[in-house]
Design goal:
Blueprint lengths: L3 E4 L3 H13 L3 E7 L6 H5 L2 E6 L10 H11 L3 E3 L9 H9 L3 E2 L4 H8 L1 H10 L15 H11 L3 E5 L9 E3 L2 H19 L4 E5 L5 E9 L5 E13 L2 E7 L2 H5 L2 H16 L4 E9 L5 E7 L6 H8 L3 H9 L16 E8 L1 E2 L5 E2 L2 E2 L2 E3 L6 E5 L6 E2 L6 E9 L2 H14 L1 E3 L5 H9 L1 H4 L7 H14 L3 H16 L14 H8 L4
Bound molecules: ligand MV4.
């Protein structure tokens, strides 16, 4: 096993990996930018190396500076976390050249999965269905029209170098095709410096389900089941869970999707932890979408349900150890749900709102896990993504996990900056969510439903009710004892301040 590992990341994932290293008896080295001097990941590391200014391009994305820090501290390996250099094939190759182990797949696997058209070819070679589409980028409006007519509208244009919805356009009819192709091409050009765009048949109201895979250097490959990631906003996942509610209706689906994912990993010559993403249509047909060649933000739901530590497994695989268990030994117990807690304002279109955390009170208890990268008194810097941490719960059933999550969210309080905590309470109370009827348009539909509910009660009535409640309280009247299922944060706060 390694003696020392450098973590080329920041925030909650750097903390998560550093904890894993400590547990494995491995020294952990943090790197940090000028904006992260006081960050939690720096505090929990055994050593910390400054690597440059706040701008990611001059710190966390600088291969030279990260490699220099690893060499200077005598690290054996680099864990890239997610984002930053984690899916950079050149970085993986340069680690190897510098005599360092990159804790992730080989450069070739990263490169082939980074190109969407190439990844689709790998999936087809593995005998896995891909969304019907072109094998090559489309070469112009005339060809695009012919191909789209063949598929039938609606179709989807996607950047070949893309991911994350960038350079993606839905096209509903031929009249809209040419402009959409122009838009997608220029967005792809701007985002990836590669304007090639290919075409797929559009899947309506799909679910987004991904499969966790693990492959070692000895030819063993297994899957750890799925994560349901359909609840997204602007291509950012917001809530993830395991199992997918769909697997309850169709238990064989996990096995079939899992086997497909393992075949893709094998066909790509993949080693280490990876995730194979699928779209699932309303008839439960699944189609390969892309493969993420890194540890994912939402990995904890898989850890809680399978009881397996993905960071630990990544370290063992990277150190050359064979997987210590077979597919048959993988079990799934209970249900886990994760919320991505972000410094953003749900009342202002989820505008990122960095700033100082003046107080923070976190939920604890059985089945509650908080992977956080922050602490009270710390200022969330504006240079990076606004993820503060992930609240993850486990319980025996999805219903119990949902209730446990609601309770944990009520206990969770962060002041000083706005967060999306209140938004999760809305989702968790939603009938469609409770019924497990999830799809990628879920949040937009939720907002539409809520908008309707709001306009049914006028602003004035609500204002009068608030004033009446305040008068009632201040008059020193008795506060009604809340039934245990209806704790109000206002009432709790009032008790704490002795307002009654
Ligand atoms: C699709 C699709 C429907 N049909 N492809 C969005 C991100 C990118 N990685 C793939 N995406 C989609 N591709 C076809 N042919 C719908 C989406 C999509 C989506 C996918 C996963 C999670 C959320 C999504 C939200 C909107 C659209």
């Amino acid at each position: 096993m390694f003696g020392k590992v450098l973590v080329a990341n920041r925030g909650e994932i750097a903390v998560r990996v550093l904890r894993g290293l400590r547990e494995a008896g491995i020294a952990g080295v943090a790197v940090y930018s000028e904006a992260d001097r006081a960050s939690l990941h720096v505090r929990v590391a055994d050593e910390a190396v400054p690597i440059g200014p706040a701008a990611s391009s001059e710190s966390y994305l600088s291969m030279d500076r990260v490699l220099e820090a690893a060499t200077a501290t005598g690290a054996d390996a680099i864990h890239p976390g997610y984002g930053f250099l984690s899916e950079n094939a050149e970085f993986a190759a340069r680690c190897r050249q510098a005599g360092l182990v990159f804790i992730g797949p080989g450069a070739e696997a990263i490169r082939s999965m980074g190109l969407k058209t190439e990844a689709r070819r790998v999936a087809m070679k593995a005998g896995v269905a891909v969304v019907p589409g072109t094998e090559e980028p489309v070469s112009g409006a005339e060809q695009a029209r012919r191909i789209a007519a063949g598929f039938g509208y609606p179709v989807m244009l996607k950047a070949a170098a893309g991911g994350g919805g960038k350079g993606m356009r839905r096209v509903d009819n031929e009249a809209a095709l040419e402009a959409a192709l122009r838009d997608a091409t220029s967005e792809a050009e701007r985002s990836f410096r590669d304007g090639s765009v290919y075409m797929e048949k559009l899947i309506e109201r799909p679910r987004h389900i991904e499969i966790q895979v693990l492959a070692d250097h000895h030819g063993n490959a297994v899957h750890l089941g799925e994560r349901e990631c359909s609840i997204q906003r602007r291509h950012q996942k917001v809530i993830e869970e395991c199992p997918s509610p769909l697997m309850r209706e169709d238990p064989d689906l996990r096995r079939r999707m899992g086997e497909a994912a393992v075949r893709i990993a094998r066909a790509a010559g993949y080693v280490n932890a990876g995730t194979v993403e699928f779209l699932v249509d309303e008839e439960r047909n699944f189609y390969f979408l892309e493969m993420n060649t890194r540890l994912q933000v939402e990995h904890p739901v898989t850890e809680l349900v399978t009881g397996r530590d993905l960071v630990r497994l990544q370290l063992e695989i990277a150190a050359g150890q064979p997987l210590a268990f077979t597919q048959e030994e993988v079990e799934w117990n209970g249900a886990a749900i994760e919320c991505r807690v972000c410094a953003e304002d749900p009342e202002r279109q989820f505008l990122p709102c960095p700033g100082k955390i003046t107080s923070m009170s976190v939920p604890l208890g059985p089945g509650v896990r908080l992977d956080s990268g922050v602490y009270p008194g710390w200022t969330v810097p504006m240079e990076y993504d606004p993820l503060l941490g992930k609240l993850v719960v486990w319980a025996e059933t999805r219903e119990q996990a949902g209730r446990r999550l609601v309770a944990a969210l009520r206990e969770f309080s962060i002041t000083g900056i706005p967060t999306n905590l209140s938004f999760f309470r809305d989702v968790l109370e939603d009938e469609e969510f409770l019924a497990g009827r999830l799809h990628t348009g879920f949040i937009e539909e939720l907002f539409r439903r809520r908008q309707k509910a709001r306009t049914s009660l006028s602003e004035e009535i609500r204002a009068v009710a608030a004033v009446a409640a305040a008068l009632h309280w201040n008059a020193g009247k008795s506060v009604p004892v809340a039934p245990p299922t209806d704790h109000s944060v206002w009432r709790t706060d009032g008790r704490a301040r002795n307002l009654r």
